[in-house]
Amino acid sequence: MKNFIRIFIALTLSATMFAQAPAKKSAPRSSSAKPVASSTATMGPVALKGGKLLTISHGVIENGVVVIENGKISAVGGAGTAIPAGARVIDCAGMTIYPGLIDSSTQLGLTEISAVDMSNDLVETSDEIMPHMHVSDAFHAESDLIPVTRMNGITNAIVSPASRDTLPGQMAFIQLDGKDRDDMLLVRDISMPLNFTGSQRRNQSFANSRYPSTRMGMATQLRQTFIDAQEYMQKWDDYNKKSSDTSKDKKDAGSPPKRDLKLEALVPYLQGKKPVVLTADEPKDIKTAMSLAKEFNLKVILESLTRGQIMVDEIAASHLPVIVGSIYEAPDTNERYDVEYSWPAELAKHGVKIAFASYDSHNARNLPYAAGYAVAYGLPYEEALKALTLNPAEIWGVSDKLGSLDVGKTANVVVANGDPLDVRTDVKRVFIGGRDIPMVSRQTELRDEYSK
Amino acid sequence: MRTRYLSSCVTALAALLPLSLSAQMSPKPVPQDTVIKGGTILTVTHGTIQNGSIYIHDGKIAEVGQTVHAPANAIVIDATGKYVMPGIIDAHSHSALDGDVNEATSPVTPHMKMVDAFDYTDKALYQSLAGGVTTSLLLHGSANMIGGEAVVIKHKFGLDRDDLLFPNAPRSIKFASGENPKRVYGSRNQLPSTRMGNFEVQRAALQEAKEYMRDWDAYDAKVKAGDKTAKAPKKDLKLDELADVLRGKVMVQIHCYRADELLTEIQIANEFGYKLRALHHGLEAYKVADKIAAAHVGLATFADWWGYKVEAWDAIPYNAVMAMRKGVIVAIKSDSNDFARRLNQEAGKTVRYGGATEDEALRMITLNPAWIIGVDDRVGSIDVGKDADIGIWNADPLSTYARVEKVLIDGSVFFDVNAGKYGLPFWKDAPMTGRDGFGNDDSDGGVDY
Q1: Helices B195-224 and B259-272, packing angle to 10 deg
Q2: B330 strand-pairing partners
Q3: How far apart, in Å, are the Cα atoms of A234 and each of A25, A174, A266?
Q4: What is the arrangement of strands in the sheet containing A154-159, beginning at the earlier edge strand?
């Protein structure tokens, strides 16, 4: 929903923006805004001592110690935890220490100034079916948005194309620091949105319409696409089988089928090797999209579901994880004001595994506050923390590396002067892959420049 | 069946009679003597009173302190363990206008009155009331250099339209410059398509008004002197409004972003001798905050919005506090149906970005916006004599975990989290109105940021 609005704004504004390059203002671009070469091997061990540890996986440790070595967490424990000789000890008394937060839907690296079209690579809108687009091909690692985001403790994120197409392309899972782009793209093509919210329809006026202009059209187009991809997959399976059959002459296999990048991109999903992120809001759309997914045996992560309240039991019975839609979505007319605020709590109460997403880019940094607000409306605090860390790590298949303060995991660790979910809390330090990230962004540079 | 038919007949008849029309809404509440007892009172002007009480009489705050003396039959609201703060004031809103935000048919439309589009049944008013907002300034959009006259409302959701209008509120008018008017008129190949054009249009309109005012002043002087032959100049609503700006009868609220624009706006106000009340958005105010402070101009800004267009590229979340430290009266405002629901959290961000004290942060959504609107003598703090516009919260309102439980306006409870389906004691379950989404300002093509 939000994605769509953002695009719309960009479109309405873009016409006259075209001629204006994003002017370079007074603040110099900081080198820290860019990925910085970091050799974690030579950094030496770091010990964060005396803070309150929110481990996520094994409770809270007061006055605890976290040791970081070679980019990984090498020890987590109470005050008596051994600190390796030569370690840089950072006094964290009064601080709260927690694993880096994971934002399960952003457009980081795909936009710089929303209204400036030339700075946007959000989605290809020439067709609804664009699974062969890869956000990793557009991801701008030097974006000024990234330091702004990570300074609030967000260390990893899904980068997703905007939701204008039913199949807008392949998402990436990023780390918000690294030597270069390749280092930041932890998992390319991690998953693919399947959007069915109604806002993917085109040209709805009778005077000037193009297929698909209705939900029937959208669903049918998707079905045809998946059938085509199944046939494509079959052709290749047949060919591969024949050409690898040692009992027969290789020539019998004939020439290989023509490669089709669009259909090829769908194969891992039809094989159940990767999940689609099924995005829908209204119950009717959730049902239609779910039956499509079932028809083609797709592995599913649910997303948004902002109007799904009446089918909460059905959602729970599916045992699928849910990336909860923005809790700031406007309630329908004549709905109670807090119906969206309390929706994450409702899902969690029914046993659904949830994760939060900002659905933002410039203010993806506000991700933890949405979780906090869900707590105000009934979500247990521990669940809210998990929904920013371990739950998304599990949903995205990276929980062996991320999502908790545990030995052996990547040292994505945040030190803040209070509760991570409170808007007043100031993040003091962020470690990503063990690197002590400079707490500098374009915004702090402007602040400092004009505070002189 | 029959009864239903009859009742719909009655409704249809009632709709024909203006007097009966308001009778469909709830009758005006009669303010009861009320005591809010035992809460942590955030007065905004004189610190925090632990375990304090407020006595409300005739819709006004009659006493506030550790203890109060009230009649035995006063209604008692137990606020033990709760936080009590003044109603939140939003100095920049386009809610409840049914999308009629911009009369973008000419860059100069001072004669538009936002009250003419005010939709008092819009759900956005309810949703922000449930976020603790009691007063809002509903402004024209930023498509035009000179928009229309704003309307100040109280969120007395459920009452009749006129009951929601803030009585005798000062007049404010919306001006705008920068990308939005450039885009709207530039896309039509009309003036103004540049910032040069922006300010030329503004100056030309003000110059015309100056002459109009001079003609009327001359005529009024003649009449006063007993000249029976004096001929009145033609009455022109557009120039009338601008003449009132020049006479200092209407406060100017300016939408602008860049530091240079802020300086130009101050300069033009000096050229024509009118008073700027506040710069709205003003995301680069931190660059010229000393000059804004020296001009005694306020600032109504976002907590952390940035990067949505070129003129918002240098926006930093430290803006509000940096400007405040230089002496500018700063408000955090919503400019959106969405943010109007949690301005308390937006204010909380100023603690994190720049280190505002909790009192300073609260002032940015209460007394300071009240000053910008010109109603700070009546609302914006918990002080004796002020309107009893009060929110009772379950937690410190600057925290993420705060939910408002009760909202009083003029001493009556207009939101109570436990009252019926909606929490609205005065709403009679008639259908609400309002567009979906938050785009009253976005969806009309004239984005107002």
Answers
A1: 20
A2: B299
A3: 56, 33, 13
A4: A101-106, A154-159, A171-175, A185-195, A275-280, A299-304, A322-324, A354-355
Q: Are B385 and B61 in contact (CB under 8 A)?
A: yes
Q: Which helix (H) or strand (E) element contains residue B128? A: helix B123-129
CA distance A149 to A442: 11
Query: What b/e readout covers A226-244, taking b as 16+ CB neighbours within 10 angstroms?
Result: beebeebbeebeeeeeeee
- Rounded Cα distance between A280 and A197, Å, is 5
The partner residue sitting opposite B352, judged by closest CB among A1, A338, A423, is: A423
Mean pLDDT of chain A: 91
The mean pLDDT of A380-401, rounded to a whole number, is 98
Residues A383-403 have a mean pLDDT of 98
pLDDT class of A423 with cuts at 50, 70, 90: very high
The rounded distance, in Å, linking the Cα atoms of B279 and B252 is 9
Contact assessment for residue B426 and residue B156, using Cβ atoms and an 8 Å cutoff: yes
In whole angstroms, give the CA distance from residue B97 to residue B124.
Answer: 10
Separation CA A47–CA A159 (nearest Å): 32
pLDDT band at A414 (very low <50, low <70, confident <90, very high): very high
3-state class (DSSP) for residue A148: helix
B126/A16 Cβ within 8 A: no
Q: Which two tokens stand for residue B359?
A: 């009192």
Torsional sign, CA A398, A400, A406, A407 = negative
Do A333 and B432 count as a contact with CB atoms less than 8 A apart?
A: yes
Determine the 3-state secondary structure of A192 from DSSP: strand
Q: Do B123 and A333 touch (CB under 8 A)?
A: yes
The residue of chain B nearest to residue A422, with distances taken between CA atoms, is: B400
For residue A147 the two structure tokens come to 């330091």
B123 by DSSP, 3-state: which? helix
Fill in the DSSP letter of residue A325.
P
Nearest-5° angle of CA B339, CA A376, CA A396? 85
Distance from CA of B240 to the nearest CA of A (A): 33
Tell me the residues of chain A between 351 and 380 that have a Cβ less than 8 Å away from chain B.
Answer: 362-363, 365-366, 369, 372-373, 375-377
Question: DSSP secondary-structure letter at B387?
Answer: B
Q: In 3D, which of A118, A148, A22, A120 has the Cα closest to residue B312?
A: A22
State the Cα–Cα distance between residues B426 and B431, nearest whole angstrom. Answer: 13
Identity of residue B447: V
Residue B36 is encoded by which pair of tokens? 């809010």
Q: Which residues pair with A97 in a beta bridge?
A: A53, A415
Chain centre distance of CA B306: 22
**pLDDT bracket for residue A250 (50, 70, 90):** low
For residue A49, the SS3 value is: strand
Within 8 A of A376 by CB-CB distance, chain B residues are 395, 400-403
d(CA B12, CA A338): 33
Cα–Cα distances (Å) from A423 to A60, B200, B369, B392, in that order, read 21, 42, 21, 20
pLDDT 10s digits, B208-225: 999 999 999 999 999 999
Angle at A259 between CA A258 and CA A261, to 5 degrees: 150
Helices B195-224 and B179-186 meet at what angle, rounded to 10? 100
Amino acid B86 reads P
A335 CB-contact burial (10 Å; exposed 0-12 / middle 13-18 / buried 19+): middle
Burial environment of residue B170 by CB neighbours within 10 A (0 to 12, 13 to 18, 19 or more): middle
**Touching check for A20 and chain B: CB below 8 Å?**
yes
Flag whether residue B260 sits within 8 Å of chain A, measured between CB atoms.
no
A331/B contact by beta carbon, under 8 A: yes
Instruction: Give yes or no for A15 touching B (CB within 8 A).
Output: yes
Whose tokens are 């505070």? That residue is A451
Contact (CB, 8 A) for A9 and B305 = no
Q: What is the DSSP letter of A134?
A: B
